[in-house]
Amino acid sequence: MADPRNRRMPPVGVRLTTDVERRVDGFRARVRWTDPSTKKRVGRVSHVRTTEEVEEFFDQMRKATETGTNTTVTLAAYAASIGDRWKRGLDPTSTAENYDIGLRLRVLPALGHIQLVKITAGMIDRTIDQWETEHSASTIKNSIAPLVRVLDEAVRDDIITVNPAKHRARRNLGKHVTQTAGALRAHAIPDLATLRTLADACGQVHQSYSDHVMLSALLAARGSEVAGLRVGDVDWRNRVVKIERQHYPGKGGLVIKQTKGRRARFVPILDALEPILERLTTSKGPDDPLLRGPRDGVLTTATVRDATRWDDLVKGLGLQDLTRHGLRHTGATWMADAGIPLHVLQGILGHQSIETTKGYLHSDHRHLAAAAKQANKFLSAPTPGREPPRHDGPHL
């Protein structure tokens, strides 16, 4: 199949002849040249409405004789012509798949019919404005990112000079949610007793579902990270659990890969979790999976949802807005309320940005009051080797 980027375009270095014919609804602009290989006269015609568009068409054809690229190609045709080239460096099991969906379902329907050279930053902004009324921040991010990557390829192919979507990727999509202190607390279970009630209800289906709930909450871990735990990750000497992999339901089936942050992190073993970990690690080798389902399969969040009839279950407990990922929010919220320093909590949760971690802080000023108390205690303590200042009288 011919490359859409070069279909019926003049070769580099050929001489062009142009002519324009007036029509009722506009103009018929034609460019002709002699094919160097066949010596035949060939050409390309465009029907436009204004004289400005006529000159634009001629300029595009002249540029093709300089670069050898088709500057009239649409976004959809160009994306089809480069295939998966724009996916280089992406994780094929998750990120690449999500970006591909965003490109197919949102970007191409909105902008695919437009020529690459005519796509502007304002046009992209208006498209994103429309997406924001219909989709979540993460969905929009997964739509902007592939657009940026495809247009980066167009820059490399000399079809466009700059990428108009480049700075659109920096729009603060949904960041006000995570940067507001306490924003993520709304997704948490209120207390340990309620968590145990939920776990017991899941345990009536099978014990593994109860263990999944407790591990996710008390380790503040993602469901895929719980599925990726091995017995050897439980360090009883230091009373921590090492989280360094996830068993992820990606494209093509379940895969084992690094955590979302691409680095290992350590989570302290809380007292409420200790008997569960003891039971799950007893008589197992260090490379054995820590938790598996009723049929010795991997427990994904979808598996837990379907097996426990999650939506009906949490609604009956008065937790109708609780998702499986809300279990991670629960553990993070409790650790924040316990007074764990923010930078330590960031390490436990594996956040790249501390702004995300701030979403678990209480919305009042209790942490500032605790900080003031610690600072006052430090400042009021005598410094070894230094006498406190003397006040013999007023200083004039």
Automatic annotation (TrEMBL):
Keywords: DNA integration, DNA recombination, DNA-binding. GO terms for molecular function: DNA binding. GO terms for biological process: DNA integration; DNA recombination. InterPro entries: DNA_brk_join_enz, Integrase-like_cat_sf, Integrase_catalytic, Integrase_recombinase_N, Phage_Integrase. Gene3D superfamilies: 1.10.150.130, Intergrase catalytic core. Residues 183-373 form the Tyr recombinase domain. PROSITE patterns: TYR_RECOMBINASE (PS51898). Belongs to the 'phage' integrase family. This is Site-specific recombinase XerD. It comes from Janibacter indicus.
